[in-house]
Amino acid sequence: MNAWIAAALVLLAAAGPVCLWGAAHGQEVRRLASVSLLSTVVGAVFLLLPQGYGRSSYQDMALVLAVLSPAGTLVFTRFVAGRAYDAQDGPGDGSGTGPAGPRNSAPGGRPEGEGNPG
């Protein structure tokens, strides 16, 4: 084991459990920050391990993670936002309101101003 691998293990052992605990507990913002930090830590580990093993082609994993982790953060954010919307005012409650306010619809379910299709 050389210094590169030892640094990767220390980084993963020190920051990994803290990020996982933060992703499992707390408010949504804390979980989102923990998931983002964990992807950064794993990306750094994916950069240290190829140096330790002397295989530069393994650095592609770090590049793929760097590209995909923001997309994962957006998916997580969308999931949390969708759950909060469902809890406040789900689409099946019949109130006709949502985040943008009440819907303005004429009888028959069409918005006002739209005529019947001929």
From TrEMBL:
Segments forming a coiled coil: none
Renumbered residue ranges of the record's region Disordered: 87-118
Membrane protein topology class: Multi-pass membrane protein
InterPro entries found in the cross-reference section: MrpF/PhaF-like
Presence of the UniProt keyword Transmembrane helix in the record: yes
Subcellular location: Cell membrane
Annotated keywords: Cell membrane, Membrane, Transmembrane, Transmembrane helix
Transmembrane helix listed as a keyword: yes
TM regions (residue ranges): 32-49, 61-81
Name this protein carries in UniProt: MrpF/PhaF family protein
